[in-house]
Amino acid sequence: MAxxxxxxxxxxKQEARNRILExxxxxxAEGGFRSAQITAVASRAGIATGTIYRYFDSxxxxxxxxxRLATQREVDKVAEALAGAGPAAARLEAALRRFADRAxxxxxxxxxxxxxxxxxxxxxxxxxxxxxxxxxxxKAIKEGIADNSIPAQxxxxxxxxxxxxxxxxxxxxxxxxxxxxxxxxxxxxxxxTDKSLVDTIIHFCMQGLTGIRR
Length: 214
Fold this sequence. Notes:
It contains 10 helices and no strands. By secondary structure, the protein is an all-alpha fold. The chain is elongated. It comes from Marinobacter profundi.
């Protein structure tokens, strides 16, 4: 008779898998993918290194899933801002501001998602991440064209330009070297409270989108 897992066994395995994901996520949030070694994840989870490979075929598979989990959280926050009330242009501005604010409040994870050198499998997830934002922005731009808060334009092209502009403008401020130089005496990155940086990025994006000088 073929062995069949009981519901209790399946639940225990899922809990173990989730625990590994939680610990891996925490490691990435603290030091990026480069610092999230399998040994560190295992130690944090209180398991043997080999146990991780019972649930994930490789480190790349584990990291790709962490990337998906982290990016989905960020995409959901932007989608939430875009779903608010008011003209599409105002909602889009709020969404872009949320993107930048959240990145600067969690610079290590944001750097890992936006620019940290990663394995090809994770880089594939990064392309999906950027495409998810572009899809949201494209929809908002089309809504803005319809409600006259945004001039007529190629919504798809403009959406990809927005993703590129906001992501690239954050690469420098989020980079490990920049954060290290701007740490204060308490070891906290000063850049995370730089409102003028966010304002400049958002003004640039919205002026390019609407043609209105701010």
